[in-house]
Every structure is written in C-alpha cells, then in structure tokens.
Amino acid sequence: MNMNKLIPVMLACCSVGTALAGDTIPKFKTGERVVFVGDSITHGGRYHSYIWLYYMTRYPTMPITVMNAGIGGDCAWDIQERMDEDVLCKNPTYMTMTFGMNDSGYYDFFKEDAQEIAARQIQRSFDCYQDIEQKMKAAKGVTKVMLGGSPYDETAKIENNVFPTKDAALQKIIDFQVESAQKNGWGFVDFHQPMRDISLREQQNDPAFALCGGDRIHPDNDGHMVMAYLFLKAQGLAGEKVADIAIDAKTVKVETAANCSIKNLKKTANGVSFSYLARALPYPVDTFTRGWGSKKPQADGLKLVPFIDEFNQERLSVKHLPDGNYQLKIDGAIITTVTAAALQEGINLAELTNTPQYQQALQVMLLNEERFGIEQHLRDYAWMEFSFLQGKGLLFADNQEAMDAIQAELEKNAFISGNYENYFKARFPSVRQAWQDQMDLLVDTIYEINQPVNHQIELVKVD
Hints:
By secondary structure, the protein is of the alpha/beta class. The chain is built from 14 helices and 14 strands.
C-alpha cells in the first residue's frame, strides 16, 4: 500500500478513534495470562503493574498473570521481528499492543524535509504492522486490545528539545491502529488524547508541567497511574466499590452491605459496633518516587484523574448517631476521629492509610514492586537479545561469541554498556530461572496474603 492510499484511510479513521475511545474492553478473567507489548514506556513503565495491583486487591480470589513484553527503543518493525520468540511464546489469553513513539522519529523533525521523512516513517510502521496484525489474528482464543500510546509533549516549558510536529506523526500511527482494531473487532484504549488534554489543562497553571517526563517521551509514575486509570475505566470497572456499608444506628439495622458482610451489629452505650468482612482490599497508592529519572510518585496521579472517586471507595455511613465526635476503632486501634454529621454523609475508609485493611493491601503493593523489579532484569535481558544480538545472528546464543560481540560495543554504545552487567548474569539459564522462580513465589505469596479478613469496627462517642 503506498502513501497516497494510506493518508485518506488515516484521515477517515480519526472519527473512528473518537467512537472507539468510549467503548469498553473485556475485563480480565480468572487465570488470564495478560501480555502488554510495547516499547520503553512499557518496558520500564509501571502502568501494567498498577493495573495488576488493582486486580490483586479488588479481586483477591481471581488470580491472573500480567507479563511485560516491552523493549526500549522498539518500533513496529522490531516488534514484528520478536512476535514469536518474545510475545506469542508467553501463551497469552489477553494481549495489548502499542507502538509509535520511536516509529515517528526524533531529530529528523529538525530537517527541511521533515514531513517527507515522517511520511516514510509512518508508511514503514504501517507496512510492518501488517505482519504483526496477521500474527495477532492467527492467535486464536486471545483477546486483543490496541493501546493508543501516550503523547509526545511539545507544549511543556522545559529545557529538553522539542521535535516539532512529532506528536502529529504519532497520532497518524495511532489512527491506523484504531482502524485495525475496528476492522478486526478488537478493543482500543486511547492514552494519547486524554493524557494530552491533562497536560494542556495543567500547563495553564504550571507551564513546566510535564506528564510525560522531563524528556517529553516517558510518562513519570503519575503518568503511568493515569494510564492505569484509563485502562481500568475502559474495562468498565469505574463505580465498583471496595465495599459499601450503610447502618442505621437508631434501628440498629444494616441498610447496605455491598461487597462485604456485616455481622453482630450492636448499639453500645457510646455508639455502635459490628463485625466487618469485605470481599476486597482498598487500592494502595505508592508515595515513593521509583524508577530511573523519575521525579514523581504514583500518588501524584491522583491529583490528575478521579481514581479515588471512581475506583477506590470503601464507604462507611452511619445515620442517626447523636451529634458529637466519634472515634473510629478497628480491631481495637484508634484510626481517626470523625463527626456524626460526616458519618451520616459517609466516609471513605480507603483513604485512611492506617486501617488494618490498607496496611494489608500495602504489603501486596510492596511485594508487587519486588516482582516488578525482578521482571525488569528479564526485560533488560530481552533488550540485549532482540535489540542487539538478534541482528548479529546470535539470538539466545548466550555464548562467548555473544559476549565478544557485546564487549566490542561497550565503549561505543551507552545502552549496551548500561545493560552489560545484567546480561553478564542473565545469559545463564539458571539465573533466569531463579528470577522466574522468585517472581512466581512473590505472586503466590501475594495471592495468599491478599485475602480479606474479618475486622471489628467500633464507633465510640468521645464528647
């Protein structure tokens, strides 16, 4: 297909993207094997890990497996070359696919013939995607979802170079991904436009705001939280509460007990008490800045999207309590003090990080972070194999010839130099297997400790 035929298709499918963006995609099922395919934004990014954490805490009896299949620097033609050995070999039951940031180019946008170069890059991406699309179509029994990648930020007032019109080229690549999703009946989730809108909104007050990091390319932890939010929202999960409890203290009746069970409700001399067993845990949000070059924690993403309101509600409301202040106690420990009026309206326990259920979820988050860190070793190994050794006919050779080829490039290539120590270890199958075993153990532990337990809740009047 030549460029003259491609451009009308891309223009036509801009409206398709708008239509598909509001559609829902399937939620994951028990035992799902989910593979996220992409470039460095997937390779080193956390959006897929944040998504898995939601499932770990919201559906504790529904184990799934989420696998990172991103490689830094990849374009469609690179993914085309590794589809069999790095993606389909993982036996996915659910696959997401994103690319375009690298396909659209970088410094060529400073050249006089930038638009012609960009057109050729887009055409090459389109052509290579045709083979990827065929491989995806041939993968039977697999749910497929195309992801419109995060934007290239040309508007942030920061020091890094701006590649003018790069984001428009990226959008054209997303356009043919949208068309493919529609044609094949696959899902589509757009990260690009919503994240661009957030950046423009925030830059009205802070011109230096950069959702896509200091390099205008890689979302920081807050950006990955936004991406996780958009994905979960596309799965139709907004509004699903951790739990919803409504009690009438006057009649001593449970009016609502959604996604939980309430037993032994009693009116006490100073308030009420009851036994509470939820079927989910609150979503724990990381307050540490993690990852190379990152400056923001996951928690900063909560300032940008209504994740708490839509996805993290553990509601407790108690009406007809006498006016005054009440200590909220869980398992005998004082959690907070709250007014009868606030309890009448309802409070969100998921925002109280000192509850035992939040602390339980926090352990899940920390174990998931450990798993993520180990998986990065395996993805860095994959980078060396597919980005360097494959081109030299040494894919998975892991022998002295491969080591010699790598060592010859150490002083010339910063990426190879940065990955050398990891490859030095990962070239041994026993090391890779040990890493996999560690991840398996961590996941098994997560699905043991993420089971909600019974808690005793008391509201005690203190004045």
